């Protein structure tokens, strides 16, 4: 079975000590850096943009997993590729021509991801799942860290896993929002491959230890 991964979300890090927090993740058992880009239009919050991603990329020694919570993401695909991003995820709800968008991401040499808001059914991916490398299942409404986990996510992950298997897709299932040590194991048992964790990691007393324990829990 494929190794289960943990991707700390830098949204919950200390922006005044970004380099310190990135080094902590470099040295930890974490697998990817999860970067949340919000435009204040698709979601009611603004996080950080290209100059900050560029600064992060300079220090990060693990893959950059970028989650775009923005309208019309096609405008910035080439820019993120140039910044050294490894995985670029767009929202299903923001892409009227999703197939074209995914091809454009792959043409730039990146893995292509699709994120689903909590109200968006996985069945809508039926005709595109074979073209997707990563599905991010939002387990909170996107826009903010530190929200509580939506319980319906477990069923959604099971349905998505069944769809992926039925269609012989290689897509990884990534869970984003409210992940902690109380739901991690259950998510992986339901079919999740990657867990994003923001507040649970960075607001803990010992973030590196928290990552280690989370990894052990889902090993
Ligand atoms: C929410 C973001 C998440 C967020 C998760 O819109 O997509 O990646 O950083 O934060 P926690 O783990 O605190 O819910
Ligand atoms: Zn995210």
UniProtKB/TrEMBL annotation:
Q: Catalytic residues per the record?
A: 36 (proton acceptor), 176 (proton donor)
Annotated residues that bind substrate are located at 9, 67, 143-146, 176-178, 198-199
Q: For this protein, what is the EC number?
A: 5.1.3.1
Q: Name the pathway.
A: Carbohydrate degradation
Enumerate the catalysed reactions: D-ribulose 5-phosphate = D-xylulose 5-phosphate
Provide the alphabetized UniProt keywords: Carbohydrate metabolism, Cobalt, Isomerase, Manganese, Metal-binding, Zinc
Q: Which molecular function term from Gene Ontology is one that the record holds?
A: D-ribulose-phosphate 3-epimerase activity
List residues binding a divalent metal cation. Answer: 34, 36, 67, 176
PROSITE patterns documented for this protein: RIBUL_P_3_EPIMER_1, RIBUL_P_3_EPIMER_2
Q: How is the cofactor bound?
A: Binds 1 divalent metal cation per subunit.
UniProt cross-references to InterPro entries, sorted A to Z? Aldolase_TIM, Ribul_P_3_epim, Ribul_P_3_epim-like, RibuloseP-bd_barrel
Q: Which PANTHER family match?
A: RIBULOSE-5-PHOSPHATE-3-EPIMERASE (PTHR11749)
Q: Which family does it belong to?
A: Belongs to the ribulose-phosphate 3-epimerase family.
* The protein's name: Ribulose-phosphate 3-epimerase
> What is the organism of origin for this protein?
Flagellimonas olearia
């Amino acid at each position: 079975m494929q190794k289960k991964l943990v991707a700390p979300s830098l949204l919950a890090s200390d922006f005044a000590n970004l380099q310190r927090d990135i080094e902590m993740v470099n040295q930890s058992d974490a697998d990817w850096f999860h970067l949340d880009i919000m435009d204040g239009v698709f979601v009611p919050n603004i996080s950080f943009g290209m100059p900050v991603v560029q600064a992060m990329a300079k220090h990060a020694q693990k893959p950059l997993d970028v989650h775009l919570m923005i309208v019309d993401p096609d405008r910035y695909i080439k820019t993120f590729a140039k910044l050294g991003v490894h995985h670029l995820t767009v929202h299903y709800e923001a892409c009227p021509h999703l197939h074209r968008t995914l091809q454009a991401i792959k043409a730039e040499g990146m893995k292509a991801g699709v994120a689903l808001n909590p109200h968006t059914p996985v069945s809508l991916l039926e005709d595109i799942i074979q073209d997707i490398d990563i599905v991010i299942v939002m387990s909170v409404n996107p826009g903010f860290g530190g929200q509580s986990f939506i319980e319906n996510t477990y069923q959604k992950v099971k349905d998505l896993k069944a769809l992926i298997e039925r269609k012989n897709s290689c897509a990884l299932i990534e869970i984003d929002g409210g992940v902690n040590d109380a739901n991690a194991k259950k998510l992986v048992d339901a079919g999740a491959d990657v867990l994003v964790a923001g507040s649970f990691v960075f607001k803990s007393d010992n973030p590196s230890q928290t990552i280690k324990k989370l990894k052990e829990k889902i090993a």
